[in-house]
Amino acid sequence: LLGLCGAAGMAIAASSAGTDLVTLQQAAATLKSTRPTAVDLGHAIDRALQLAASVDEHARADALWDLCEAMLREQAESDAALGRHGASLLAGNVLTHCNTGPLATGAGGTALAAIIEAFRSGRLERCFATETRPLLQGARLTTWELQQAGVPVTLLPDTAAASLIRSGEVTAVMTGADRIAANGDTANKIGTSGLAIAAAYAGIPFYIVAPTTTVDLHGPDGAAIPIEFRNAAEVGGFGGLRWSPGGVDAYNPAFDVTPAALIAAIVTERGIARPPYRESLLAFVDGGGS
Amino acid sequence: LLGLCGAAGMAIAASSAGTDLVTLQQAAATLKSTRPTAVDLGHAIDRALQLAASVDEHARADALWDLCEAMLREQAESDAALGRHGASLLAGNVLTHCNTGPLATGAGGTALAAIIEAFRSGRLERCFATETRPLLQGARLTTWELQQAGVPVTLLPDTAAASLIRSGEVTAVMTGADRIAANGDTANKIGTSGLAIAAAYAGIPFYIVAPTTTVDLHGPDGAAIPIEFRNAAEVGGFGGLRWSPGGVDAYNPAFDVTPAALIAAIVTERGIARPPYRESLLAFVDGGGS
């Protein structure tokens, strides 16, 4: 969805601010700076810029709106493939984190597409969804999307994930990704790395489901991934409700990096990458692979 | 504090419901059933029952109130000793979970007593406090108590704990305990085991600070510890605010069990127990040891 929004932002800029390349380059820089961790946003904006530079100035706005529609169709096809590949890894009950459904991608979703497909094909019984503090995407969005899809869902506090994983109730943990480095280190919603560590401790697999556009081969490993830190006000309350005293500092990174060594597989729309990721991801991202 | 409340509950029962032993035994059973995981509650109630049985019926109510005052004095001495022993393990920054301060024990606290003592003695710079969903004791109580004590405090979502631990910003994780089995397996607030697993992964020590009354030598290991499951309504909202859709099931255990193998030390008021805990705890609980 960030990529689609980036492309739409470029089309809006061309329609309202101007179609000269300097204006579009300024719009691109502004749009990119809004979410430094996610790689899909930058990819889509670069694609829009290249398209704009390749057509006459008077045709740029139409071309950028056509690009948005093409990207929506591509997204639907990619998400359906992610769902099919990811579903093949699931059985019994799964735990997921944050929101990775239609509300997150604009089409079928990533990890949630796989979870819904696994339920529909009879492989999966139930999805456990973390609340995902501080913005509660799991409690607000994932529960709702799974209800809409008819998948039995159980909500849990983020604090309960480790004991659930150790209880034997779930056979796998599956999440999306915001950026995957060339070695497989993966940035995703804050809390993901803790789930991966708990899964490794319990001996159950941890899976990433993400399109190849999320893979950043220019980033060698997780240390090179910029992490967005967000407003302290998101911690210590929610919405209009405050539950912590005033004047308290907060540590509020939006993402964390899960080491590749904790990831059993990275599911892409082109197939399932297994360790070592430096080779398996390269094959998919370069257009090779299954 | 649960122990003090249990003793006070017995004194209240004797003052209001009756001082015959059958009435007091019924009160004891009711009070014990309110919190099945915490062992301090049962210890205190058994102590009150034994005292009641050892004095004449007309003297029982006064004796039980005297017991409450004696237990408050004992608590203050015990917490002060916990603070001294626990502080010796800390340096730099520490991460804690839930609330273990004066509001939790009625006197100085357990882990928080150690953290405050370590700050006052110049060993500690800052305490990171988890929000501790679903009841947010860390966000509501621990931040406030540390502010009152003048200790610099940073609040974080539970989801951010694993990345903070891996960042090198904290040198240790220190929490309290609700029940410690004979082998050192420890039940504490939900989320504790996830922190201990993350600390082990990052190679920093995880410490428990709890009085010897928390040790249940009759419980051989964590599998024997009963875990209280709480109302699903606590998940998916807080206070009057709801953020998840209706009709969602919830997984809401109040406690989890941290395996003894993940615990670097168990700090008691009688000294610091190190693995193997079956021997080291026995020495302290039987009244031996330093």
Offer a quick outline of the entry.
Two copies of one chain form a homodimer. Chain A is an alpha/beta fold. Chain A is built from ten helices and 14 strands.
Describe this entry's structure for a reader.
Two copies of one chain form a homodimer. In chain A, strand 2, helix 7 (137-149) and strand 3 (153-156) form a beta-alpha-beta unit. Chain A contains ten helices and 14 strands. With 290 residues, chain A is of the alpha/beta class. In chain A, the strands form three sheets. A seven-stranded mixed sheet of chain A has the order 3-2-1-4-7-13-14. In chain A, strands 8-5-6-12 form a four-stranded mixed sheet, covered by helices on one side. The first copy, chain A, has helices spanning 2-16, 21-33, 39-54, 60-87, 102-105, 111-120, 137-149, 161-167, 192-202, 277-285, and strands at residues 92-96, 124-130, 153-156, 172-175, 179-181, 186-189, 206-209, 215-216, 237-238, 241-242, 249-250, 255-258, 265-268, 271-273. Chain A is 43% helix and 17% strand. The mean pLDDT of chain A is 95. Chain A is globular and about 60 Å long. At the A-B interface, helix 7, strand 3, helix 8, helix 9 and strand 11 of A face helix 7, strand 3, helix 8, helix 9 and strand 11 of B.
